[in-house]
Amino acid sequence: MAQVVMLAFATNLPLGLILGATLLTAALIEEIVKTVGIVVLALATGSRVTLDAPGIRGLFALGQGALLAGGARDLLAEVRLEGVGEGTAQRMPVALAVVLDHSGSMSGEKMVQAREGVVSLLERMHDDDYLSVVVYDDSAEVLQPLARVSEIRRSLPPRLRQVEARGGTIIPQAMAMGATALASAPGTHVRRVVLVSDGQDGSGLTLDQIQSELGRRANDRITTSSLGVGTDYSEPFMTGVADAGRGNYAFLRQGEELQGFLTRELEESGATVAENVVATVSLPPGVHFVSSHGAMATTLSDRIELPVGTVFAGERRKVVLALRVDAGVAGTASAIAASVRFERASDHAPQASRGEVAVRYVATEAEAVASIDDEIHPDALAAVVDARQQQAVLAWQNGDREQAIHLAQANQAAYEEANRQRPSAVYQARVDEIDGDVESFRNVEAASESGRSWGLAGGAMRRARSEAY
User: Fold this and answer.
1) Distance CA 208, CA 201 (A)
2) HSE value, Cβ hemisphere, 13 Å, CA-based, for 231
3) What is the pLDDT of residue 16?
């Protein structure tokens, strides 16, 4: 008799409901048709599916392929994207707007290093690249309108070296000036705003308002990266700028490290292979979104939009999803569809790829544990727990040592339980790492220079881990 491994029903049952891996005979299929209606072969046959398109090599995977039937269960999933250069891919021309803080707190060596960092960036740029420089304190001005690098190599450095630190800090207006400057860049150029700040925003705008505008610019192919210098800036503000702007974030203890960050921004921009990269995960009835890590999610009625931004050749990006599943009866499963769409950087041609995976519902916990993906699940769980550990650090920064320690120990317990079910070197390494965090919570003053530096460095490290694989 003919056999079908997996089927989906188009009528009278939720579209997300599919039969599990039990082999079905033709006679049983015929009986199902009489009862249900149309039978459609499902695309979902496993817990991994590729999402490849010219410029992107992609994967959507579940942390485990099966869940214990008959209850609300946690499920982790991961979107992985790798930028792929097409043959001997040529460098993309770049248009950068550097938005440079010269408020009073930047005085001294930080201001000197910031100025020299931009001069060094100019030296590394190609003649056909474009550069604009905006400087700001309690007001903002365009020091250098957008111009071809070949035209300003000699004239810009002397003017940069005259910039002095003074006044307060008003960031959104300065970023808007940078984005406005980039609007006149040739359509062939990759466009990026790079924000440099060591202080707190004094504009009076909320972070939500600022992020909304940055997201709009990102949709218009203007990426925004942020660089925090020293230990007095607002970490939530600077990471929020990078998240909404779909760019990079870094913490620099000293201004002399700025040159490396700007060089990285230039090299990544020139190697861009995909822009406006957006992953979409469609959820069937009974599968619910909890959180995302690695991209700011937009939740719609039946799907999650995950804007990634630009991807450069060789870059490996990930987005982790935490889901809650109303597990059906044993022997059934749910299909979860994923797609990625983007514009190829070389010609802005639209590209897309789509696939489906299946989560099966099984009768025993042993079957569910046996289905764990030993690569995806530990990595995804670590991203989720990293976010919780950042909350522990925040409690410590706010002066609540006991709460910080309590949260950290709960995070250790989560790793220990996962390791009990399915051992992984990742879990033990993170338990040891949290041991170090707890020691710092107990012995380091959060308000001290060393405490602020430790907290900012850890936050930057966890954010970077949540985005890369």
Assistant:
1) 13
2) 15
3) 36
